[in-house]
């Protein structure tokens, strides 16, 4: 059975890019267009991994992630923060907020499947540690 990934991203081009790459690598992909939709979809689908954009209109990714991590029914979900505003200390900020990992945009499309696999297998993506060092 394919592993499920929920992409929570307000930019349609980014959603399509992530979806196409992950579908090609045999993941079952669902999409949400903002934080509230992401929370609703996560509760319904209980995906193996969530890629959560941080900067979205309405409910942002930090709020959506906090809601999911604060709910005993969804606290176990793995949530990876996605941001295009990578700043010193962001990784630590997202991990302290309960996220399981951090990925800065633009993403490396060749490395994304391996990063996803590492997170799915319970580890932190090695490439992320190198990026933020």
Structure, explained:
The chain is of the alpha/beta class. It has one domain (4-132): Rossmann fold (3-Layer(aba) Sandwich), CATH 3.40.50. It is 43% helix and 18% strand. It has 6 helices and 5 strands, in the order βαβαβαβαβαα. It has helices at residues 12-24, 35-45, 61-70, 90-96, 112-120, 126-132, and strands at residues 4-8, 28-32, 49-53, 79-83, 101-104. It has a 5-stranded parallel β-sheet, sandwiched between helices. Strand 4 (79-83), helix 4 (90-96) and strand 5 (101-104) form a beta-alpha-beta unit. Helix 2 runs parallel beside helix 3 (61-70). It is globular. The protein starts with a strand and ends with a helix.
Q: Into which percent range does the helicity of residues fall?
A: 40-55%
Instruction: Report the CATH superfamily.
Output: Response regulator
Main beta-sheet annotation = 5 strands, parallel
**Overall pLDDT level:** 87
Count of beta strands: 5
* Amino- and carboxy-terminal Cα gap: 36 Å
What ranges have pLDDT less than 50 throughout 5 or more consecutive residues? 126-133
Rg, alpha carbons? 13 Å
Global outline: globular
- What number of domains? 1
Range of strand content: 15-25%
Classification by helices and strands: alpha/beta
